[in-house]
Write a structure and sequence with these properties.
169 residues; Nucleotidyltransferase, domain 5
Length: 169
């Protein structure tokens, strides 16, 4: 299973591709789409769309996992982040990928074991789980963590289905 994880943002969108072979995880690729705040929002959204589409074309993921947008204080920030996430989702769907969304707490719980983990803890555990020499930058680590979360969720669902099938027979 190969999954593209996305940490959406209008200025920095993290992308990370993780492959699972049985219980082994391997990082395939990672990058950060960087936009300048001086660039008009529609141009930034187009760059996010193109970057996600390029990553899908290059690495052919089986699925895409994206972090749900959550901003508690500023409605304008929430709207802009939602548009950035929407651009990424559109690129994924048009690229033929199934898209799943996960909350930040779900992702942190899957990778670190605690939903309130901080950025450094996520970076450290991504490094450990993927056997990397150094921790990736925060946006890329969050994207890789999102992909790992999806892989763990898919593996758990597969185990549950197999257990139910065995119990029914």
């Amino acid at each position: 299973m190969r999954v593209l994880g996305i940490d959406p943002g209008s200025l920095r969108t993290g992308l990370g591709v993780v492959e699972a072979d049985r219980n082994e995880l391997r990082m395939v690729a990672r990058e950060c789409i960087r936009n300048s705040g001086g660039v008009p929002l529609p141009s930034r959204l187009a760059e996010i769309f193109r970057g996600v589409a390029r990553m899908i074309d290059l690495h052919r993921p089986h699925a895409v996992a994206i972090e749900q947008v959550f901003v508690s204080g500023n409605a304008r920030s929430a709207l802009v982040l939602g548009q950035a996430g929407g651009s990424a989702v559109c690129a994924a769907v048009l690229g033929g990928c199934e898209v799943s969304e996960y909350s930040a707490r779900q992702i942190k719980r899957a990778v670190v074991g605690a939903g309130a983990a901080d950025k450094r803890q996520v970076q450290h555990m991504v490094r450990v789980l993927l056997g990397l020499r150094a921790s990736p930058p925060a946006d890329e680590a969050d994207a890789l963590a999102c992909a790992i979360c999806h892989i763990h969720s898919a593996q758990a669902e597969q185990t549950i289905r197999a257990t139910r099938a065995a119990a029914a027979s």
